[in-house]
Design brief:
By secondary structure, the chain is an alpha/beta fold. It starts with a helix and ends with a helix. The strands form 3 sheets. Strands 2-8-7-6-5-3-4 form a 7-stranded mixed beta sheet, sandwiched between helices. The chain has a 3-stranded antiparallel beta sheet with strand order 9-12-11, with helices on one face. Helix content is 42%, strand content 14%. Helix 4 packs parallel to helix 13, helix 5 packs across helix 12 and helix 15 crosses helix 17.
Length: 391
């Protein structure tokens, strides 16, 4: 970090007040983390990338954060986070929210301010399945579900065909929501070309485009493009700071200044005003500026993990998509996925997530090491055999 502060790291960015996302800063921060007893991981926790604990550097940032009253608009750490997030996402302004669910709901509330508007979204999208039906029961928007393809996209011809005509019998189609990366499609990254095409369609037909970018950093790293370029065609985008980036809590929502002004009103109505929330914005800012580039390590680790698990005969491991990032879904054939997960944890120190009767999800994150995954396939095989042949 001293080398970075002297400007000798070659990253071209001078930020003497805090660490920045160059390799030297990342290495320094991870070294900080390794000395924190609370972060020592005997258990390989791969249930999600939300399970990570804040690093020592993040904890110190929380302790030393300069705070104000964010509801009154004068928390300087929140303001810095929002400005940095807006810059990274290529938008005019941003808003710090308690969660990705809240960020997405605020976006729908603004884009569909007239109750009864219709939102086109994927039938397997996070907004559709995992966010409590908030766009309907809170925002008063009607969800029009279309199939998600294997690559996470929604067929844009189907989107155009789903846009309602101007008729009193129908809701007004107002918004298209896209998820990148796509959780239920195995964490696949959507290409920027598709994002551009979706934006062009929305512009031509008078719709708004919102991107649920909970794991957008993974998509950008995988596709080799900046966040600003990836969501250039979007009217709004949410970004989770507590998944792959490792912050303890929070998301950001970005868009035009006018959009964010209305989203701030929506956040207040949802109970999202948190006063001296700079104590959470500080580790989130550190996550945003230091953890982005290391995501490629998670992606590389997943490739090795996939190859090992593919050798376990009891598992149904699909081929790895070329756009896979940090997430893997495996089938357990006729075996009880929950029972396998319970044995993995109790007997082998591995925590993974059953997401169906015969399906398990694994997610690489910064607390999962090569040592954790080195013999994971043998542990899976042992757990599966125990479930198949109980004593």
């Amino acid at each position: 970090s001293t080398q970075h502060e002297r400007g000798a790291c070659g990253c071209g960015v001078s930020r003497p007040d805090r660490k920045h996302g160059c390799r030297i800063a990342v290495a320094a921060m991870m070294a900080d983390a390794s000395g924190d007893p609370s972060i020592a991981q005997a258990v390989a926790d791969m249930r999600s990338d939300t399970v990570t604990k804040p690093t020592r550097a993040m904890r110190e940032a929380m302790l030393n954060a300069t705070v104000g009253d964010d509801v009154l608009g004068d928390d300087p750490t929140v303001m810095e986070l929002e400005a940095q997030a807006a810059k990274w996402l290529g938008k005019e302004a941003a808003l710090f929210t308690t969660s990705g669910t809240q960020a997405n709901l605020c976006a729908v509330m603004v884009h569909c301010a007239q109750r009864g508007c219709e939102v086109i979204l994927g039938c397997d999208s996070h907004i559709c399945i995992y966010e409590g039906g908030g766009i309907a029961n809170v925002a008063g928007a009607h969800p029009r579900q279309l199939p998600n393809n294997a690559d996470g996209t929604i067929d844009l011809d189907a989107v155009e065909a789903a846009i309602r005509p101007n008729d009193v019998h129908f809701p007004r189609t107002a918004l298209l929501c896209i998820e990148n990366t796509h959780n239920r499609r195995g964490g696949v990254a959507l290409p920027v070309e598709y994002m551009d095409a979706a934006g062009a369609l929305c512009k031509r037909r008078g719709l708004r485009l919102h991107v649920d970018g909970a794991r957008l950093p993974n998509a950008c790293v995988k596709m080799g493009v900046s966040a600003a370029r990836m969501v250039q065609a979007a009217d709004s985008v949410s970004l989770c700071l507590s998944k792959g980036l490792g912050a303890p809590a929070g998301s950001v929502l970005a868009g035009s200044k006018a959009f964010i002004a209305e989203a701030r009103r929506a956040r207040k109505a949802l109970g999202g005003g948190l006063r001296q929330v700079g104590v959470l914005a500080a580790p989130a800012l550190l996550a945003l500026t230091t953890m982005w580039n290391r995501l490629e390590e998670d992606h590389a680790r997943l490739v090795g993990l996939h190859a090992k698990l593919a050798t376990v005969k009891a598992l149904d491991v699909p081929p790895m998509p070329p756009t896979a990032t940090n997430m893997l879904y495996v089938g357990t054939r006729a075996l009880d996925a929950k029972a396998i997960c319970q044995l993995l944890e109790s007997e082998h120190g591995v925590r993974v997530l059953p997401v169906g009767p015969h399906e398990i999800r694994l997610v690489c994150n910064y607390m999962v090491t090569d040592e954790h995954v080195e013999d994971l396939h043998t542990k899976f095989a042992a757990a599966a055999e125990a479930v198949a042949s109980p004593v």
